[in-house]
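hi!! sorry for the late reply, been swamped w classes. u asked for the two structures so here they r. pasted raw, havent cleaned anything up. first the sequence of the first protein and right below it the tokens
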Amino acid sequence: MTTDFIISLVGDEFSRASNTYVGKLRSNFLGTKFTVYDTEPTIDSAVQLNQLSRRFHAKRVSPRISACNYSIATVSYELNVLRTRGPRRMHCVMHTIPVSSILEGGTAPTPPSPLDPPSLTTKVNKEQENPDSSSSIGHSDSPAVTEPPPWDPLILKNKSPRWHEQLQCWCLNFKGRVTVASVKNFQLVAAVDPSHNVSAAEQEKVILQFGKIGKDIFTMDYRYPLSAFQAFAICLSSFDTKPACE
């Protein structure tokens, strides 16, 4: 009843027990909500690390093979109940990135053993599977039980496009990086509460943009505080079918 996208560093190895397995993206039934799972807990997640250590204290575990999937982000698409015209509306909650990271001097947590090869070519295998099915021992599909982070998470929203009268379509300024109109095209900016005192200029900065440039060819541009994996997983969510959002 859900769709899983398995993300790996190589195109022919999608086993969760492999050290090429990076993480996964799971959708709900309607394709309106996605959860991003990483194999590595963040460096600030002492509770997660202690639980992992206690569970596998008698076993040798490769630092690149995690026993659990850690929920690091949630991507939601707003339901289009009235079938009104317009682009998709996205809302991303980055559970492992504090909103303070976009302030001057702010930092974002990083995994203790990051997968950071010189050239990251990520391929995807889309598979349908039963979320209740059993998994192999030592690698669970269920998210690890963790305490909420001691910060307000960074929230991203899609930048509102403008209606172009001559072209009769919704437009965003991709500065030449996107050349083909598509419902999948988007730009994400920070959605910040006024109490955080984030400048208007900082809130207008595009943190992630994704768009079409040809038949089955897309570009992805991202910046701090997102990682390549986080940005890729968010973009991947746009490919799943969303009958309730179109």
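now the second protein. again sequence first, tokens right under
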Amino acid sequence: MRLFHPRSLQAYIYFPCLLLLVSQKIALASNHTGLKVSNHDIVVLVNMEGSFDLLALQPFNNDVKVKLLTQHENLVTLIPTEYEFKANTTENVTITVTGQNPGHLVVTAESQPNETWIVQDLFVRITVANSQTIIYLSFIFGWIYFIAWSVSFYPQIYTNFRRNSVIGLNFDFVYLNIVGFALYSVFNCGLYWIPAIQVEYARRHPRGLNPVMLNDVVFSLHAAFATIITIAQCLLYERGTQSVSKTATCMLGLFAFVVTIAASLAIANVIYWLDFLYYCSYIKLTITIIKYALMNYRRKSTIGWSIGTILLDFTGGALSMMQMILNAYNYDDWASLFGDPTKFGLGLFSVLFDVFFMLQHYVFYSN
């Protein structure tokens, strides 16, 4: 009497062997770490040289040929572009990078034999700039604008605290502000921290740099926090008969509707999440224009509003625009002005309306 059918016996032998073979393949792949680079991000100047190293941390069983690939051949020159790593040796090779034209590119690689694990970690983001001085100036301007714009909230907070009153403060301005800065924070945090959104931005602007910097993220989050403090003062201090107008309430409802629809479309994969972030930033820019239009023209007075806030806001707006213009020139990336139109628009409208407010305060309504 046979206890096992021959095919059943084959299966009992075949499947363990298959599992053993697969496990050996996995172990073999895991033993090879492939090629690494010494630095994934480098900056070089036009007509100047930089470098990075290709590292073979463990010896290969066979000879491996590697060819470097660039997105934009006219931006940099790489020497060498091809190299052969010999079997059973650990080698490092230095790649010299010479800047040709300003811009941004990513270097990747292909290998022979064509095994993904060999070059999966081999990528370098290269930024080619016109001037090192402009890089430093952009950094300085960015953090000065952050300080000026961030500090600009506190003269008003102090004025409210000293008077124990928010009479004269435009409530529409404050409540539009919290919505605007909350949406601007979503935009900045998304572009600065979420890799999938960064990849989509790079696809649309292959030679452009990410327009959102750390100072942008910190500013928007701090601005939302400072606005919440001002709202708390509006609820606690003397406010007379002031309240949020019906017009502002309707606009806030409309903005909430637009954000909800855009988020739903992004969740349903009808639009990209980058587009959702753009819609958030456009609402912030719209709020900036509206809130200035509503602010002092109707009151014909600047009493209760801190002029220190306006002077600091003017400084921050001017430096914010200057930082973006410097970066656009330094990296030949004028598309970045359109890649983050909200940041440039905030600076532009802040400067224009701050000038108008200063004229109101010192000339038109000085009495």
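hope this helps!! also noticed smth abt the second:
The first helix runs from residue 6 to 31.
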